[in-house]
Structures are given as C-alpha cells and as structure tokens.
Specification:
The complex is a heterodimer of chains A (about 70) and B (about 160). With about 70 residues, chain A is α/β, with parallel strands linked by helices. Chain A has helices at about 15-25, 50-55; strands at about 10-15, 35-40, 60-65. Chain A has a domain at about 1-40. Chain A is built from 2 helices and 3 strands; from the N terminus they run βαβαβ. The radius of gyration of chain A is 13 Å and the shape is flat. The longest helix of chain B is centred in the middle third of the chain and has 26 residues, at about 90-115. With about 160 residues, chain B is mainly alpha-helical. Chain B contains 7 helices and 3 strands; from the N terminus they run αβααααααββ. The two termini of chain B are about 30 Å apart. Chain B has helices at about 1-10, 30-45, 55-65, 65-80, 90-115, 125-130, 135-145; strands spanning about 20, 150-155, 160-165. Classes of the chains: A alpha/beta (about 70), B mainly alpha (about 160).
Chain lengths: ~70, ~160
C-alpha cells in the first residue's frame, strides 16, 4: 500500500485556500502532489453533487477547502 | 457537507473520503499540512473501487439531487432560527434528526429503485441485495409506487414482481 498514490480532487475557494495554495507554492513549501485543484469562487459553491460525481468518476478522495 | 459525509457513510464509502478544512489565504503552512493529512488519510483507506460501489454511488447521486433532501438542507437555518410555517420552534438536533432520517429513507429508496433496474424484482431479492429488512423494503416500495417510480406487474412463483419505471 505504500506505493499507492491516491487521486484527490480539491475544491479550493478562490479567496482563501486557493490563495493559500498559491502562497505555499511561492514560499516553496513541500506538499504531496496528489491533489487536483479545482478553483471555485467560494467553497459554498461546491454542491454535494460535485463530491459524489468526483468519487464516481474514479478519484479516491475529495477535499473541500475555503 | 456534514450531511454528505453521513450519506457517504450510509453508502459504505466512508465519511473520511471527504475532508473539509478552512484555510485562509495567508496560511500557506496550514494548507501544506491539510493537504498532507488528507493525502495520508486517503492513502490509508486505499483505492476507492468505483466499479464495485457503482450502485451505492449512483444512489448517492440521486439522493443529493433529491428535491426533499435539498429543501430540508436549504430551509435548515430559517426553520431552526425562526420556526416553521406553523410557528413551532425547532432546535438544531431534532431538525438534523429529521434530515438524517429523510436522507436515509431517500437513499434506501434509490437503492431499491436501482436494485429493481438490475433485475432484483421481488421484495426478498431486493432486501437481500441491499441489506435492508423485508418490512422496510415493502414500506419503501409502497412509497415508490405512490410516486410512480416503480410498478407492481403481477405475481411470479407466488412472489410479487416489481418493475422500475
């Protein structure tokens, strides 16, 4: 299981977590490359349908961050 | 999101597949931590077998699209702060209990619907397929019939047969 690289879809709020991710990049912090970021204008925009859809389409986990 | 996690638990997918975290734009360090934690947690849970879970996943999607569930979620703040249309006050716990019951009910109804589509047409077969007891299945079937989602088509080997519409 140690080689397993999960696919995680991350819904990031444009104003909070996306900017945080940007800053993490700029300040060269290391974090796992497993997330696929989806920028949304607000984390309130994320509908439960998106989450279920993501899981159905074959990702292993979902992160909602705002 | 709280309800979505409950739904994932119901579906046997596990609520820990969905992580929710608040990170502000100035917290790069925190973002890195959150991503690391999420990745570790998902890594421990292993790969999600979307093929094997396709039926519960589809039922989940139908449930989160369901009108009643969405109304309940949308009205939560209004009803728990100002009371319902009859002026009755609701505390958050009892409202959430109602919401969760409805969520479970819708999920099971959708599972039944999908089971019928898959060719499990009698109450006993459906009950075995989706691991819900017989009585509950027949109640929910009656409900599905009333809303024109399934149809009673007749008896076969002394068992009632249903069809999904």
């Amino acid at each position: 299981m140690t080689d397993f690289e999960p696919k995680i879809v991350a819904f990031l709020c444009n104003w909070c977590a996306y900017a945080g991710a940007d800053l993490a990049g700029v300040s060269r912090l290391q974090y796992p490359p497993n997330i696929r970021a989806v920028r949304v204008m607000c984390s309130g925009r994320v509908d439960p349908v998106f989450v279920v859809k993501a899981l159905r389409e074959g990702c292993d986990g979902v992160l909602v961050s705002g | 999101m709280h309800l979505t996690r409950k739904l994932l638990d119901l579906a046997g997918i596990g609520k820990d597949r969905l992580h929710v975290a608040w990170v502000s734009s100035a917290e790069a360090q925190r973002f890195a931590e959150v991503v690391t934690q999420t990745t570790e947690s998902i890594q421990q849970q292993g790969k999600l077998d979307a093929e094997a879970l396709s039926m519960p996943l589809q039922a989940c999607e139908m449930t989160v699209n369901d009108e009643t569930v969405r109304w309940l979620v949308g009205k939560e703040v209004k009803i728990t702060s100002k009371g319902d249309v009859y002026g009755r006050p609701w505390d958050i716990e009892s409202y959430e209990r109602v919401m969760f019951k409805e969520l479970e009910r819708e999920f099971q109804k959708n599972m039944i619907y999908l089971a019928i589509k898959d060719g499990f047409t009698s109450v006993r077969d459906i009950s075995q397929k989706i691991q819900v007891d017989l009585l509950r299945v027949s109640y929910l079937l009656a409900d599905l019939e009333r809303t024109n989602k399934v149809e009673f088509t007749g008896m076969k080997d002394r068992k009632p047969v249903f069809a999904a519409l």
